[in-house]
Amino acid sequence: MNVLMIYAHPESHSLNGALNKFAVSHLENAGHHVQVSDLYAMNWKSQLDANDTLAPLAGDHFHPSMDSKQAFEQGLQSADIAAEQEKLRWADAVIFQFPLWWFSMPAIMKGWFDRVYAYGFAYGVGEHSDTHWGDRYGEGSLSGKRAMLLVTTGGWESHYSPRGINGPIDDILFPIQHGMLFYPGFEVLPPLVIYHTSKTDDKKYASYCQQLAHRLDTLWQAEPLPFRQQNAGDYVIPALTLREDIAPGEGGFGVHMKS
Amino acid sequence: MNVLMIYAHPESHSLNGALNKFAVSHLENAGHHVQVSDLYAMNWKSQLDANDTLAPLAGDHFHPSMDSKQAFEQGLQSADIAAEQEKLRWADAVIFQFPLWWFSMPAIMKGWFDRVYAYGFAYGVGEHSDTHWGDRYGEGSLSGKRAMLLVTTGGWESHYSPRGINGPIDDILFPIQHGMLFYPGFEVLPPLVIYHTSKTDDKKYASYCQQLAHRLDTLWQAEPLPFRQQNAGDYVIPALTLREDIAPGEGGFGVHMKS
């Protein structure tokens, strides 16, 4: 199978660098084809702006979504954006690897999503009607592909537990896993999160590699997170609120998972 | 009072550009001093990397937090980082203005947090003991200052409601408001969120300005979000889980607000 890694860490001699090399070699030894978008090494441009389109502006001034649409439709996107989209088309699975900085991904990876996720590619896809509100949240250009987060954090696991002060890790990652990955159609596998990285010694590193190897070996068998599909009947269209008879009276991120 | 706006939009002829100009002029007319960090206009560097420190590396290779600590302590940070920290020291209130892209801030603003929030400035501050786990979550370098988000989104309000498909807006913003603003000590005011921006006409724009003016006029009177302070007795130290007798059996972001 084809595996794409989107990887963001500024130093190759780091825990993340080592885990990235381990993952590539483990996947290749198992016969998979691997491409890595090493965003720091590529000097990836983070900021979405008018230079991302080679097409004439759709209006009088630059408009992020309208000009993304125009550039995508006309095949006039910046070459770095088009190349990443092509890698996504090629991939059967995508692993996003990053250190958790301020409870989200590093800016350079956010810039990958902001720019590669073009209008017509990752959003604004499919018909909008009274029964179908676009191909999103379970449908879309990336459906049939799997995605997984590989995340490191300096913080302690208990600080990210259900009652931990940082908030539960599942909730912290929801805007990424649901909002960025499930949205354009990925099946999202449970994340592999490595905590308290300042205390990594040889024994712990061996255990991380073992966990990662297991996750890579089961990329095609693991059960994805049970997010609810938007157009499968659970939501009222176009308000897109969860039907009143499902998890009645409850709110929050958790209701968007089938129980 | 001194108000700093951290502002990220690639086009000044936009709703965000207009609201930014409105806010500056409204605040100045009320007698306040205003500085704007217009991140796109400044060509702000988004990616945290080894060029952010002018100090010798703390170890054999670049280490994001250890080298941030060293550079901050020695006064050898990159000049753009030090300048933003100085603006923060000057400010009595900080307004972060951005369009919500993929359920978070644009990469260029994430890069502002990744880089300006140095070790020793925004984290790694204060003693760590059995009764006090660092000056964070309600204490820290930025305590006594107020912060507010001003956010626009193309999505509909119902999609961000308590049972809306995107997840509740309060939860989407929690990693920012609690994790990035309350963490180094800001008092965080409720956000001003403007929805469905593609449908903005003159009448709606006037209403947005009116709402924004009201929020600016009450910056020093509004009640901050009631996040729980880390070291005030609600959390078990060092696990930093909420005490068992508070909101017993409950989890999620909501338990970190006093009810």
What does this structure look like?
Two copies of one chain form a homodimer. Chain A is α/β, with parallel strands linked by helices and 259 residues long. Chain A is built from seven helices and eight strands. Chain A has helices at residues 15-29, 64-73, 79-90, 107-116, 169-182, 202-217, 230-234, and strands at residues 2-7, 33-38, 93-99, 146-152, 187-188, 192-194, 235-236, 241-242. In chain A, the strands form two sheets. In chain A, strands 1, 2, 3, 4, 5 and 6 form a six-stranded parallel β-sheet that branches. In chain A, strands 7-8 form a two-stranded antiparallel sheet. The longest helix of chain A is centred in the last third of the chain and has 16 residues, at 202-217. The model of chain A has no long low-confidence stretch (mean pLDDT 97). Chains A and B meet through helix 4, helix 5 and strand 8 of A and helix 4, helix 5 and strand 8 of B.
Task: Chart the SSEs and their pairings.
The structure is a homodimer of 259-residue chains.
Chain A lengths: L1 E6 L7 H15 L3 E6 L25 H10 L5 H12 L2 E7 L7 H10 L29 E7 L16 H14 L4 E2 L3 E3 L7 H16 L12 H5 E2 L4 E2 L17
Parallel strand pairs in A: 1-2, 1-3, 3-4, 4-5, 4-6
Antiparallel strand pairs in A: 7-8
Helix pairs in contact in A: 1-6
Structural class of chain A: alpha/beta
What is the multimeric organization of the chains shown? homodimer
Considering residues with a beta carbon less than 8 A from a beta carbon on another chain, report the largest interface and each chain's count. Answer: A-B, 66 and 66 residues
Number of E-type strands of chain A: 8
Total number of helical segments of chain A? 7
Sketch the topology of chain A as an H/E string, one letter per element: EHEHHEHEHEEHHEE
Helix content of chain A: 25-40%
GO molecular function, one term (chains A, B): NAD(P)H dehydrogenase (quinone) activity
Keywords (chains A, B): Oxidoreductase
GO cellular component, one term (chains A, B): cytosol
EC number (chains A, B): 1.-.-.-, 1.6.99.-
